[in-house]
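Fresh eyes needed here. I'd like your take on this protein's tokenised backbone:
***
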Amino acid sequence: MPSFGIMTAPMQVDYQDILRVWQEADVIPEIEHAWLFDHLMPIGGSPDGPAYEGWTLLSALAAQTRRLRLGLLVTSNRFRPPAMLAKIAATVDVVSGGRLDFGIGAGSRPDHPPARREYDAHGLPFHDFAHSVGSLAEACTVIRRLWTETEPFDFDGAYVQLTDAFCNPKPAQRPCPPILIGGRSSATLRVVAEHADLWNIPGGDIDDVVRRSALLDRYCAEIGRDPASIARSIHLPVSYDQPRMTREAITEAVAAGFQHIVLGLSAPYPANVARWVADELVTASV
């Protein structure tokens, strides 16, 4: 059976509205996970509107929910040094009582201007795509090591250098939180094959999604990994006015082998939207 979750992009919306939706979902068994995104400025709507920092908000929501698995879809590896990110994520996992799914990706596409501007606005470097993918692979390596190794270690990579690296406390989950990597490029899929427990891709063109999934299967085979060991996750936007369209997209995705469904909710969120998702989308689709 597929698992279903919701995603509330934390932009152009108030904190109390997101909290309301997450707390509603927390008591609805049909909704098993909930997600935020990781942008420092809005990527839709007014460019000067509110956008909350993802990990800070996630920690607050973790403290005020009890059941939902939770994460960012997905953390930009460009925003935070990986050892710092490992510490942040371990803290959230402890706060949540071991409910974190650790989502990470290479970072925003350079051809997406609303996302591109947040780097200059925050004094963050924006490297080329090869750098972003190479540094993602090293980040996944050191983050997992920080979560699991019991002694400090050095790491001298092409992109990441650490001296006496150590993470304490460890995450609540053992050996560590599941790692979800988001993306569709061939280079990113090679990182997925090596490091991920789950792989997420945006929906829309189901034929492209299927081709990407088959490519991931091939990359797994090349390194001797069972492709079935990586759960397939897809993000599907929700239409409040035309739920049938969303149900059809869910049916297509499940038929294509995607068992982890993230339903993107747009703001403003209707009253009782989590219950509506469970009744109109989840129950009606399975």
In short: Residues 3-282 form a domain with the TIM Barrel fold (CATH 3.20.20.30). The chain has a mean pLDDT of 95. The first helix runs from residue 15 to 26.
